[in-house]
Amino acid sequence: xxxxxxxxxPIYVATKKDRCRLELRHHPGASGTRPVLLxxxxxxxxxxxxxxxxQTIVDYLLKAGFDVWTLxxxxxxxxxxxxxxxxxxxxxxxxxxxxxxHDVPAAISGMRExxxxxxxxxxxHCMGGAIVAQGIAQxxxxxxxxxxxxxxxxxxxxxxxxxxVMKVEDQxxxxxxxxxxxxxxxxxxxxxxxxxxxxxxxxWDPLLQEPYKVWFDTPLRHSCNIEHCHRLSYMxxxxxxxxxxxxxxxxxxxxxxxxxxxxxxxxxxxxxxxGHCGKFVRNxxxxxxxxxxxxxxxxxxxxxxxxxxxxxxxxxxxxxxxxTMYEWLRRGRKRDQPRTLRKYVLNGFGHQDLYWGSxxxxxxFPLIREGLER
Length: 374
Fold this sequence. Notes:
Rossmann fold, 12 strands, 8-stranded mixed sheet
């Protein structure tokens, strides 16, 4: 039976340049404990850190002596619909570039305004790891603020399973955006009136629904009868190993995934086509993207203690994402590499079960703690 940590009330923070409203939440540790900020993946929310089969990572860190903060950023299921309805279809808002440039710095500023002092530990999972890594590379998350960093599943290098690569090459996201669909939900249909009323559950646009029907009859889907599981797996690749999260898989998936901005998902797809992070390209109808290595900035990682973690059975972001990040960071002279660098590819783990799984408190959480303390 799944366990939960209570969700605190949000502390609203706004990004300085584009004024997106984000949500910080605070789980106070004892006086003098070390601050740590947790950054979730896209379409998920900060509650991803407050659920587990046996223990949550938030509870684990509190017991280990940390002052725990979580961020719901612009691609959060808690924030993306609000941000979309506040700013409309501004193409500059929902990109990996915008999230990496503005969201974690805004959270750090919000923490400082609430009397957080000293270095802040940082944990980024999935696209949270991507925006953390890119923010470091861009120089907007300085080592004076953040030295100890744990990245799980995804950093600067985007390597996906073959079925995800094939879906990206079909380019349905470009077509949906051209048809003026701006948000995608695992189970809800799209309606332009989404800001005024809930469109309710229903089929996706035929551009997604028809291929989904074909995919549903292949061995790629899980053998369960849980629609949310099937639709998540089609959208992203199965984001967990169901056997590792039996009660969450059975009862709690609808509470853990929600809206994702389509343009943000398109930027992820562009990076998957590149194999690494790069600037968003508007009107990228062709299969060839311009070469862009502007975010592969090795020097910004030099004064950090980095820990990279993934599962060997991750079918959302292939383990090559972390392997390539590690090898890239190991290039060059010793003095140009991170202060410390560790990589763990854990047998029997997929993606989300790195935090939710029955064995996560014994096999994953101590590695995260070690990375924050190194």
